Amino acid sequence: MSNKAERTVALPAIIDLDSLDGIRDALLDAIDEGPVAVDAGGVERVSTNALFMLISAAETARRNHLEFAILQPSAAMSTAVERLGLGAQFSGMIRG
């Protein structure tokens, strides 16, 4: 694991197709610097593509031997994860 400080990426309230590029770029920049924490507490609505992007970012971090955590996901995000059957993919990265 890296000794670098964890970088936090805050997700917006609405994560739709229009916001994916900015979030992807922020995640990639954070992964380039070290461990990543994603603040998901304020998410009100999340697209399926955004959830898959988070899984992909977590895998990229893992391949680079970096920690990747999602901090205190909102009820809306947790519900979306469960409804899409992605609980197993997210279980290892949820903190709080």
How would you explain this protein's 3D organization?
With 96 residues, the protein is of the alpha/beta class. The chain has helices at 20-33, 48-63, 75-83, 87-91, and strands at 7-10, 14-15, 36-39, 45-46, 68-71, 94-95. It has a 4-stranded parallel sheet with strand order 1-3-5-6. Strands 2-4 form a two-stranded parallel sheet. 25% of the residues are buried.
Mean pLDDT: 94
Q: Count of helices?
A: 4
The description of the largest β-sheet is:
4 strands, parallel
Give the uncertain stretches in residue-range form: none
- Give helix % range: 40-55%
- Total strands: the figure is 6
Q: What order do the SSEs take from the amino end to the carboxyl end, as H and E?
A: EEHEEHEHHE
N- and C-termini, Cα separation? 21 Å
Q: What class, by secondary structure content?
A: alpha/beta
Give the amount of beta strand, in percent: 15-25%
Question: Nearest-angstrom radius of gyration?
Answer: 12 Å
Q: Report the principal-axis shape.
A: globular
Report strand order across the widest sheet. Answer: 1-3-5-6
Please summarize what this structure is.
This protein is an alpha/beta fold. The chain is built from four helices and six strands. The strands form two sheets. It has a four-stranded parallel β-sheet with strand order 1-3-5-6. It has a two-stranded parallel ribbon with strand order 2-4.
Question: What are the main properties of this structure?
Answer:
about 100 residues; alpha/beta; two-stranded parallel sheet; single chain
Could you give the topology of this structure?
Elements: E1 7-10, E2 14-15, H1 20-33, E3 36-39, E4 45-46, H2 48-63, E5 68-71, H3 75-83, H4 87-91, E6 94-95
Parallel strand pairs: 1-3, 2-4, 3-5, 5-6
